[in-house]
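User: My collaborator sent over this chain with a note saying "see what the structure looks like." That's all I know about it. Can you take a look?
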Amino acid sequence: YPFTSTVSQEDANNKAKAAVDAQGQALANIHALCTYTGRASLGFTRNNCGECKIGSKVTITQDMVEGHPFQSNDSQTAADAMAMTAVQAQGQALANTKGTCSNATMYTGKASFEFTKSNCGANQVGNPFTVTQDMVEGHPFQSCVSQDEANLVAMAAVMNQGQKIADERGTCHEAPKYTGHYSEAFEKNNCPSGLIPSSVTVTEADVTGGPFYSYESQFAADELAKAAVKAQGQ
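Assistant: Without extra context I'll predict from the sequence alone. Here is the result:
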């Protein structure tokens, strides 16, 4: 270089061409650069679905993110790292746009509890009454988390409303009636002087006011009979 000729311009050009052809590849291998194009992919799940919705999984690749293609003159590893960085940074937003949402599994709560009617009249006793989830306001009680959570929601409603429902729908029956018994021996105390008095056993059947009933307990009934015997027995 330079390539000259006294023959013609064409001859000079041919000399230059021959030199380039002979040396070009070696020079290119020394001075030119290699360009590596990065590849990367990562799976994301859509996470902006509404309540009780499930996001689909989306695979995000280097071709789907801004900035592609990701190239490096250093190595394939460097190019892939650039691509992965972009995928990680932009992937979730893309998944939230490109992914779909589907309905989550819904669990329907069940619950029951036995209450006793508490507003019966005098000398009446309430019967047991079972309240279930279908009898309270707010049913059905559902959860997309678990069956246990749905059951807890149902039970909370049953416990909150159950007594009122039992008082409205439950029935009453007559309370148990206890009959009092009592007896006591009394000694006649109005005999003339010098005579020996005898004793008499007085029972509840001998006094007025019987029979002596109580809806509270046998003890209470017996106390009523006892009071009458003591008051009238002598």
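A starting point for your reply to your collaborator: The chain is about 35% helix and 25% strand.
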